[in-house]
Amino acid sequence: MEISLYKTVPDLQEEKIIANTMERIAEINAVVDKDNIPMGFEVDEEGVWHIQENRNKSPTKKWICSPLWVTTHTRDHKNENHGRVLEFKDTDGHKHEWTMPAELLAGEGMKILGTLLNLGLRISPQKQAREKLLEYITNCNPIRRARCVLQCGWYNNVFVLPSATIGNIRGEKIILQNPSALESKNDMLGSLKDWKERVAKMASGNSRLILAVSAGFTGPILRLLHHENIGIHFKGKSSLGKSTALHAANSVWGNPVNVHTFRATANGLEGIASLHNDRLLCIDELGQISALEAGHVIYMLGNGVGKGRATQYGLAKKQSTWRLVFLSTGELSLSQLMEEVGYRVKAGQEVRLIEIPADTGISGLFENLHGFKGGADFAAYLKDASFQFYGAPARAFLKLLIENIEESSAIVKALMKDFRQKYLPKTSSPQVIRVFDHFALIAATGELATRFGVTGWAEEEALHGVMKCFQSWLDNRGDLGMQEEKEAISQVRSFFELHGESRFTPWERGPEDRIRTINRMGYRRETNEGPEFYVFTDSFRKEVCKGLDYRSVEKICIKKGFLIPDRKGSPTRGERLPEMKKNKRCYRFSADVLIGTTEGNLNNDIEVL
Ligand SMILES: Nc1ncnc2c1ncn2[C@@H]1O[C@H](COP(=O)(O)OP(=O)(O)O)[C@@H](O)[C@H]1O
Ligand SMILES: [Mg+2]
Q1: CA 376 to centroid of ligand 1, rounded, Å
Q2: How many CB atoms lie under 10 A from the CB of residue 173?
């Protein structure tokens, strides 16, 4: 769908379809109840009734459901994807408006009944009454028209949210018609002032939080600047504050239900991504799903394209595309997850999935605890605040953005240019430049939000926080953080200490040690310096590196001089192992892995273990 953003005049053709003046609406409202009711049905305060005409007898009335109105007919900009807006009150008297895709009327209509029941409509349990309900919905013919959009985000010059459309709607009413939209209808709680005071203020002095919250505002800017999708992955072990950072970012837009933990399948993800189009999508604990699923998820998000599938009836093939910023967390790296399912990580994808060590080395993910005793207390406060105050910042930001759209784009572009001159290292590779541009866009958006008065941060605070994260990305590219490096070494070393005897077959076996090695993972060869270990590749990756990114562990072990690479520098080597007729690739660890060494120790602050 091509959307022109700069079109400020409403589509005249659309205006012709319906003169959406106040009088007209009032007129429609006046007639909708009576004229809209199909033959054979009646609606009163008790509900919808089916009238059965009986020959020679007075007609009988059968109750179908509590009062339900079909108020509006919807269709998209191509006059496809028709739907109906259903209005009713639940048993507690709360008003509901559901935009039902008309295609749900095909078949048995179970999904319609299920959704209506779920939203609190009372429906007669009789089978015949349920059929009549579908007939009623089908035959209602509302005069009122609205355009539906299937995704959130920009539509011409307005921005569609699950519960509202921001911008000046002078043409037809625009409604989101998305099956996943119901859950996120309640997407605003608390005022902007509260959010600034309780959430945004806590981000001050915390580079990762500044980045996360600024990235929260960046979704709508992507399309304005024709910028590609951006993914940021906070990588690190548990209890650092990663999920808290995601919740803080998500509070820019809405309800905590939108922080998804990806147990959902990749198919569910397409719907979710459409809902977060032009916005922010948060995925917590990416590693919880299988590598296969995670790989697909990352691939789809990075490229902004769903798998595309035929509709239920084999008609047009729908392909979802979306543009968004996504934030994720996990203990493993994204590229590792992708490679495990056989995707080669292309340079283009790698730069779209920026990995940042979650641990700042100060208080986990945080650097400034704003007077709280510890990281845990601070995290608890911030998470709680993000659950209580949300949604207002995005609305305020969008309103100002739409009112000043040309100027805002120009500001963001100018800031990016300025940041590039000041902060981009002169000798950067093309990849680094592209990643820098993502950071620069996020920083510029953060600054724009500050100028709009939405964040309450000082000028350049967004810039400094985001650039600190860029530096951290640059320093840790492909490596683990300092703390994690120590942990990795300690894990590898204790593995050999524990299992070096029992799980490695002696290289030269005398007749006295013909005992089988249980759960063998390689060979042990005695040398003058001590035992060397030849470790099978799978055993190393799955067991020795359990819970760690094995590629990073390989790098560290080579750097430390424990792991002896082959002549080309590859971490595995072809070795003729005892009793084998051919060379087999394996890892060769020197005896240093047990005794520790200062040689090759590039980091002085790692004590000699
Ligand atoms: N920076 C921190 N320092 C100490 N404990 C923390 C920190 N961040 C979080 N925690 C603890 O971990 C719990 C989970 O926080 P969460 O943000 O979900 O961390 P993560 O996603 O990194 O595992 C918190 O309730 C808190 O007890
Ligand atoms: Mg977590």
Answers
A1: 6
A2: 17
Q: Which of 240, 378, 381 to mutate to test the pocket of ligand 1 (most atoms within 8 A of CB)?
A: 240
Atom of ligand 1 nearest to the CA of 234: 22
The structure tokens 């003169």 sit at 19
pTM of the full structure: 0.69
Residue nearest to atom 14 of ligand 1 (CA): 239
Of the listed ligands, the closest to the CA of 383 is: 1
Are β-strands 309-310 and 317-318 bridged in parallel, bridged antiparallel, or unpaired? antiparallel
CB atoms within 10 A of CB 502: 11
Burial of 17 (0-12, 13-18, 19+ CB in 10 A): middle
Q: Between the CA atoms of 439, 448, 210 and 280, what dihedral angle is there, to the nearest 10 degrees?
A: -70
Q: What is the pLDDT of residues 382-401, one digit of tens each?
A: 999 999 999 999 999 999 99
Q: Domain residues of the chain, as ranges?
A: 5-184, 192-477, 483-595
H or E element: which one contains 310? strand 309-310
User: What is the 515 CA–ligand 2 centroid distance (Å)?
Assistant: 46
How far does residue 327's CA lie from ligand 2's centre (Å)? 12
Residue 84's beta-bridge partner residues?
73, 100
SS3 content of the chain, % helix, strand, coil (to 5): 40, 20, 40
Question: Does residue 365 have its Cβ closer than 6 Å to ligand 1?
Answer: yes
Question: What are the tens digits of pLDDT across the range 116-132?
Answer: 998 899 999 999 999 99
> Tens digits of per-residue pLDDT, 525-543?
999 888 999 999 999 999 9
**Helix, strand or coil for residue 76?**
coil
- Give the position, in ligand 1's atom list, of the atom nearest the Cα of 236: 22
Q: Does residue 327's CB lie within 6 angstroms of at least one atom of ligand 1?
A: no
